[in-house]
Specification:
Layout (H helix, E strand, L loop, with lengths): L2 E4 L6 H12 L2 E4 H10 L3 H11 L6 H12 L8 E4 L5 H13 L6 E6 L2 H12 L9 H24 L3 E5 L4 H13 L2
Parallel strand pairs: 1-3, 1-4, 2-3, 4-5
Helix pairs in contact: 1-8, 2-3, 4-5, 6-7
Length: 188
Amino acid sequence: MNIVIFGPPGAGKGTQSNLIVEKFKLHQLSTGELLRKEIRDKTNLGNQISSIINSGNLVSDEIVGNLIEKYISNKIYKSRLIFDGYPRNLVQATNLDFLLNKYDQKIDIALKLSVSLETIKKRILERKSLEKRADDKEDIAIKRYTTYEKNIKPVIDFYKKSNLLKVVNGETTISQISSEISGLIESI
């Protein structure tokens, strides 16, 4: 089973992905974590990514697609992936579909965490005291949320047309969200 989970930056995708990984024995593929790893490793690509993220922009589809294909092509992860934070736009959704088909796989369910900008701002303030991240600044968060919302509409439509989209209320507690997600996954 392959799952896509998406929602604006700060929606709790990582938290929910971790819970899904535990419960359903999947492998989390967090584009954010893949990008942060490149930054931590101080690779040339990492330096480029850091500059893009710190200016409040999203990393190119090509960069992210190449990182993703490494995992999709690995037999260890075949039909056992949860895509956390990918795809973010229609080009990425189409590319993911292409890559999965190329390696004889598919998406089984697309989960959209629905969260307001106000909730995102509140969560970022709470997260700031726990974990320092360069993108945990309110002005950058607002820009990223706006950019995300603008780009995600075609992705929502893409998964809606495929009858794979399930919208989850991301405003409730972690356990309530997790319970709703588990029910949706178990019903596949």
